[in-house]
């Protein structure tokens, strides 16, 4: 799309208000934390300190609403500690403009690089930059700076304490993630009844795995319902696909297909019941019709061959899912050695080397996170100098607005910029009008500020424009505590927010980090990961006695991660005003569909892994041996815009097929795999539409 359309789409996205599940009790708990800090400072008779120290509780509350599987008290304390350090460092050089600008630029660069660790770390880094900007107008002595930093940290302690003392739906995030995965499996089973090759998005399973990775302390306290169903859901997916597939499962028409549809419908009903039980911490309730369908019929339509094996496996797994979920909710058990090796989350101190490796990995010019860090550091410094030069007070609002809206990708930055300005305009208008009409004193201003915080926490997931409006009104009332005139506050906030937003938008236009040129690399990485997964599965068929269960599992996880990286890159590229000179949007979608099919075929074959005492398969060994070199050549061809060639691999398959006479699941799956690879070659051989596929006004991105 061109620049004009890209900006329109970004603006529309930023102004969109979504319907989201509200959590009023959690919002009340977070706003109480802010109220405690403000109230204590007012009780001590220091309104100015109340205004500034509320930031610790406010920001610590924000981070606890983010999608993180870390314990919420830990998040609150970690962010509060970072805010306290940022506050103190900012004060030490606040009196010297040049030194402060250098510190601000360096600190903002590190905060921008924090996105390499994860989105929650990136958000926390952004909050530390914001508090550093605010400290410019605060304490007048080192002792005062230490006191203020302590109050900032105290705000996080208050939030963490409230979370521990007043828990709201413990383990709710983990329950929702597991229930969503089970519900996604149920939806997949229903879709397979109508479309035997329906696609499946593995994102819910990936989220469930992330949620099941717990700290050592959490592992000792985790409810029994959260132990086993995720593993069952992982094993169910290939079995469902294998049963429905018309090539290796039930025939496309006839009594066997009817029986397969009945089993899929019953599986969906059972999985929905298990998901509901997990989400609400209740026992499983199953309708008798579904249980009757899952019984092996004495007469009537019967499945045969591979479909019969899949049906037996499906029934067994569904029974396991119900039994594992129906355990007493409060019971716990020791963590197993397998969980210690794979599902234990490292403690915060042990995350330090992981974070350092992530930062080192992104410290290169081609990294979009590195370029974001440079961009946001330059904008923060420039915004601070411009804000100080303008005839307004609170000039730090300009860089503050820039830092809060800037993200590593184009679409989010522009969308948040529009949402920030629009929300700020609404918030300061409403807040200023109330200040003008009511003329509240200190305590009423504080109460109105807490109400705005509660609304922000409550509506946080509805859209950035809504939360920006709540924050803008919160600031108006908060400054009213210190006696700041509302007329000046409204004017300053609108003008300086507009300036900061314009700086953020201009910075991305002048120094972009486009995702579009990376598409072929992401596609090649997904192809390579899929190839390793396929070779691991065929290696088990070739030499069953030598197979390692973890080898297939790890290859599958790598393939999922590569698919998620591709889908994220493709989604970002679709919103950018650039086009890849060697990969049109249509080719990218077709190539992604082909690789998804390749993964589905491999997954179906995984459902039929042989036992360790099974006979080795020379055909599978030859196919796996040729698959590796063929995929290596194909990976290079994808990156370098070459031609994909599968003739050698097809020759090996034809020899294998002739030897087996099309009997067995493995050679039939290999045929489907080759068809998917041919589709990939055809997708990448298409020339971009219109010469280069670029719309008028669209930049042509380099490769």
Automatic annotation (TrEMBL):
It is a multi-pass membrane protein. Residues 684-703 are annotated as: Disordered. Keywords: Membrane, Transmembrane, Transmembrane helix. Its main location: membrane. Coiled coil: none annotated. Residues 384-506 form the Integral membrane bound transporter domain. The chain crosses the membrane at residues 21-42, 74-92, 98-117, 149-168, 373-397, 417-436, 443-460, 466-486, 493-514. It is found in: Membrane. This is Integral membrane bound transporter domain-containing protein.
């Amino acid at each position: 799309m061109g620049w004009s359309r890209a900006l329109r789409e970004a603006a529309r996205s930023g102004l969109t208000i979504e319907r989201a599940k509200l959590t009023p009790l959690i919002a009340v708990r977070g706003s109480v934390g802010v109220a405690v800090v403000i109230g204590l400072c007012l009780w001590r008779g220091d309104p100015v300190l109340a205004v500034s120290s509320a930031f610790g509780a406010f920001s610590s509350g924000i981070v606890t609403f983010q999608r993180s599987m870390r314990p919420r008290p830990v998040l609150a304390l970690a962010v509060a500690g970072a805010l306290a350090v940022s506050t103190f460092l900012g004060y030490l050089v606040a009196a010297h403009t040049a030194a402060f600008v250098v510190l601000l630029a360096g600190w903002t660069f590190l905060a921008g690089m924090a996105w390499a660790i994860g989105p929650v770390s990136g958000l926390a880094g952004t909050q530390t930059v914001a508090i550093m900007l605010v400290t410019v107008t605060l304490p007048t002595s080192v002792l005062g700076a230490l006191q203020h930093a302590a109050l900032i940290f105290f705000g996080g302690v208050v939030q963490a304490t409230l979370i521990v003392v007043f828990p709201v739906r413990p383990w709710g995030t983990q329950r929702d993630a597991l229930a969503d995965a089970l519900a996604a499996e149920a939806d997949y089973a229903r879709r397979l009844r109508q479309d035997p090759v329906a696609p499946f998005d593995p994102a819910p399973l990936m989220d469930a795995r992330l949620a099941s990775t717990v700290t050592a302390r959490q592992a000792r306290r985790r409810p029994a319902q959260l132990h086993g169903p995720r593993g069952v859901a992982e094993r169910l997916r290939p079995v469902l696909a294998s049963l429905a597939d018309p090539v290796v499962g039930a025939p496309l028409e006839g009594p066997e297909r009817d029986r397969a549809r009945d089993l899929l419908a019953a599986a969906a009903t059972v999985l929905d019941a298990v998901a509901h039980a997990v989400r609400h911490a209740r026992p499983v309730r199953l309708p008798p019709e579904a249980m009757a369908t899952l019984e092996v019929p004495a007469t009537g339509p019967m499945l045969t061959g591979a479909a019969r094996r899949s049906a037996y496996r499906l029934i067994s797994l569904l029974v396991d899912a119900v039994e594992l979920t129906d355990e007493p909710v409060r019971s716990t058990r020791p963590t197993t050695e397998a969980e210690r090796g794979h599902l234990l989350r490292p403690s915060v101190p042990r995350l330090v080397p992981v974070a350092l490796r992530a930062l080192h990995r992104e410290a290169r010019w081609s990294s979009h996170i590195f370029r974001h860090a440079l961009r946001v550091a330059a904008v923060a410094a420039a915004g601070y100098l411009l804000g100080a030069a303008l005839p307004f007070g609170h000039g730090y609002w300009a860089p503050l607005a820039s830092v809060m809206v800037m993200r590593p990708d184009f679409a989010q930055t522009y969308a948040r910029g529009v949402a920030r300005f629009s929300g700020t305009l609404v918030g300061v208008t409403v807040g200023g009008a109330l200040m003008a009409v009511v003329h509240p004193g200190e305590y009423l201003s504080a109460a109105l500020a807490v109400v705005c915080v509660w609304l922000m926490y409550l509506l946080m997931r509805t859209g950035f424009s809504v939360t920006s409006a709540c924050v803008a009104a919160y600031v108006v009332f908060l400054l009213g505590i210190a006696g700041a005139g509302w007329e000046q506050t409204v004017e300053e906030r609108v003008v300086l927010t507009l300036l900061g937003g314009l700086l953020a938008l201009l910075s991305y236009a002048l120094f972009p980090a486009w995702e579009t040129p990376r598409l072929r690399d992401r596609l090649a990485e997904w192809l390579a990961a899929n190839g390793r997964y396929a070779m691991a599965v065929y290696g088990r068929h070739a030499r069953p006695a030598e197979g390692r269960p973890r080898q297939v599992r790890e290859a599958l996880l790598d393939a999922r991660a590569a698919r998620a990286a591709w889908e994220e890159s493709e989604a970002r590229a679709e919103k950018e005003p650039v086009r890849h000179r060697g990969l049109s949007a249509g080719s990218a979608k077709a190539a992604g569909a082909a690789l998804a099919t390749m993964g589905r075929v491999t997954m179906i074959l995984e459902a039929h892994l042989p036992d360790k005492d099974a006979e080795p398969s020379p055909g599978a060994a030859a196919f796996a041996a040729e698959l590796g070199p063929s995929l290596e050549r194909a990976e290079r061809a994808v990156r370098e815009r070459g031609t994909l060639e599968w003739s050698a691999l097809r020759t090996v398959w034809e020899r294998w097929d002739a030897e087996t006479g099309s009997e067995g699941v493995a050679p039939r799956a290999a045929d489907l795999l080759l068809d998917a690879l041919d589709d990939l070659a055809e997708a990448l051989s298409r020339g971009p539409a219109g010469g280069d596929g670029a719309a008028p006004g669209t930049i042509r991105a380099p490769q």
